[in-house]
Amino acid sequence: MMQAKLSNSECYLNLSNKKKLVLENQLFRRVFIKTCEKNGCHPLKSSVTGIIQIPLWLTFTFSIRYLSGFQLYPQSDSNNLIADPSLNVPCSSFLLPSICTLAGLANVELACLRRPLFFNPKSNSVIPDPLPYNAVRFVGWVGNLALFACCSFFPKVG
After folding, report:
1. According to a count of CB atoms within 10 Å of the terminal CB, is the N or C end of the chain lower?
2. b/e for 98-116, b at 16 or more Cβ within 10 A?
């Protein structure tokens, strides 16, 4: 939408590529902040989801093979780009499971922050969380702690 508005602007068409990029970044920031204000949230709170989700995804995709300790592919004699012997080395430290657990727990708690709060207009107080929501939050905590226990204390194959 911003690109369509900018492409119709005479001023924008006369700018150099570097100045166009600066203008687009400024407009994106302005639109992002206005959208956050319109929805009644802080820009940092809106962007923290991306700040947590991207490292969480990278952590799990690149480290789950080390946590499992199982051989992911049969050893081959050919020199493939993916065939790296370090991919089959089991994790032997507490650091990687701890990081994965903390990232998972942060994700569970961020879901609590993203959820809208419901107010009771008569007493001017916040309505407590419904039971299914608390159950899902509890399962998230138990699941992440079980992942930590399995990755840390169970013997690895290999």
Report:
1. N
2. eebbebbbbebebeeeeee
Where do the H-state alpha helices sit in the chain?
Answer: 2-7, 10-13, 17-39, 43-68, 95-114, 131-153
Encoded amino acid at 156, one letter:
K
Please tell me the pTM assigned to this model: 0.41
* pLDDT, tens digit, 9 for 90 and up, residues 45-60: 767 767 777 777 776 7
Structure-token match 């989801």, residue found: 49
* Stretch among 68-77, 98-107, 118-127, 144-153 having the lowest mean pLDDT: 68-77
Under 8 Å between Cβ of 59 and 91 = no
